[in-house]
Design goal:
Elements lengths: L26 H8 L3 H17 L4 E7 L8 H11 L5 E4 L1 H11 L5 E2 L6 H6 L2 E4 L2 E4 H15 L7 E2 L1 H18 L7 H7 L4 E2 L7 H11 L5 E2 L1 H17 L3 E7 L2 H8 L1 H8 L9 E5 L14 H7 L10 E4 L3 H15 L12 H31 L1
Parallel strand pairs: 1-2, 1-9, 2-7, 6-8, 9-10, 10-11
Antiparallel strand pairs: 3-5, 4-5
Helix pairs in contact: 1-14, 2-14, 3-14, 4-6, 6-9, 7-8, 10-12, 10-15
């Protein structure tokens, strides 16, 4: 009896038969052809999700940045090119990343070192270490002075969101870079030039916040308003969805910035009561695990239960368990090779309009809520 020729439906994936790696291969070709299993394949899936779907014309991309990425030069090598090509529309970062980014923007230097160096000897020599990155203690003092000097100016003597503070600070960093002829050195400067709003979910948890706290002792009227940040970030997501676009989140690491990007949907749905379905695209690069609590609540499937991710879009989610210093350069190279540059959305300049849209949606919810008790009361009296 002849065997049936039908193919097993479980064996319809691509045959594993990669070509030999060549000396002239591009990074994008290497990812496509050699990253075919395990975390390599997850990284390939991440690259394709970002380049093919998240960078479509109808997607608004929010990025969270955690971990000491800018000291490692990833601001210059990856994040600035992503901003300049319109691949990132809004950002939530730790304050530390923005503080260390500023070193480069104002002409200060950091150096490659060794993680095995004696830290007591480094302290005696006035050298600060971030794992295998070294820099002079004076770099901290100079950057501290820079932020205190700019924040003492009259334009900062008012309450403001962290996006407004970073936009104004970015203008000073960009000007210092222009004078020193330093191009493409600072994420803050690039965000200012392309009107990308940059938020910090814990503004007091960095050297920037520490220096602003000192100015408060000296009578400064500057107050960073984290509640304004909550409303502004929710407004960005709501406005995108209201106008028929998709919301994409690109999460580097975890921590508070990760949650701040994701909580925009629960803020809209759960807290404000405005109908919404969740983010459409989810890409996370992390070395954390959900079973130890480090990633709990933030895997795509768990995020669905919170309303953070649209359950219908769960297939458009990738968690890449790779060090961001490995994954981000490859994802950036892949996107630059495979996706067309987009016009920057300049969302910072549209903050008021987006807030008005969200406010209007919430006003409708409030009117419905007050109308229901009135209707019940009228029914009882009848």
């Amino acid at each position: 009896m002849a065997r049936k020729s039908s193919v097993n439906p479980l064996l319809r994936g691509a045959v594993i038969s990669p070509p030999p790696i060549r000396a002239d291969m591009t990074a994008a070709d290497l990812v496509d052809q050699a990253f075919i299993a395990y975390n390599g394949r997850r990284l390939r899936d991440a690259c394709r999700l970002f380049a093919e779907k998240m960078l479509a014309a109808d997607a608004v991309v929010g990025m969270s940045i955690t971990g000491a990425l800018t000291p490692a030069g990833l601001g210059m090598s990856c994040l600035i090119p992503l901003i300049e090509n319109g691949f990132v529309d809004w950002i939530v970062s730790t304050g530390a990343n923005l503080y260390h980014d500023t070193h480069f923007g104002i002409g200060l230097q950091m150096f490659q070192g060794s993680a095995e160096t004696d830290d007591i000897a480094l302290r005696k020599s006035g050298v600060v270490r971030i794992y295998d990155i070294f820099f002079d203690y004076e770099v901290l003092l100079s950057t501290d002075a820079f932020f205190r000097q700019l924040a003492a100016n009259p334009e900062f003597q008012q309450p403001m969101s962290t996006a407004e503070f970073h936009y104004r600070a970015g203008r000073y960093v960009a000007e210092r870079g222009r004078v020193l002829k330093l191009k493409g050195r600072s994420l803050l400067a690039a965000a200012y030039e392309h009107a990308v709003p940059v938020y910090t979910s814990s503004p007091g948890d960095s050297s920037i916040g520490m220096n602003l706290a000192l100015l408060e002792f000296e009578g400064s009227s500057l107050r960073l308003d984290p509640l304004a940040d909550v409303n502004e970030t929710a407004a960005i997501v709501y406005s995108a969805k209201k106008h028929g676009m998709k919301s994409a989140v690109f999460i580097l690491g975890g921590g508070s910035p990760k949650n701040f990007v994701l909580q925009t949907e629960p803020q809209i749905q759960e807290v404000m009561g405005v109908a919404e379905n969740g983010h459409d695209y989810f890409l996370q690069v992390t070395d954390a695990r959900p079973d130890t609590g480090g990633l709990s609540g933030a895997t795509p499937s768990e995020a669905v239960s919170w309303g953070k991710i649209d359950p219908r879009r769960l297939p458009d989610s990738v968690v890449c368990y790779v060090d961001a210093t490995v994954a981000l350069p490859l994802i950036t190279a892949y996107a630059l090779a495979r996706a067309k540059a987009r016009e920057p959305r300049r969302l910072y300049e549209r903050r008021e309009t987006m807030l008005q849209e969200l406010h209007s949606a919430y006003d409708k919810v409030r009117r419905r809520r007050t109308a229901k008790p009135a209707a019940k009361s009228a029914s009882k009296s009848a």
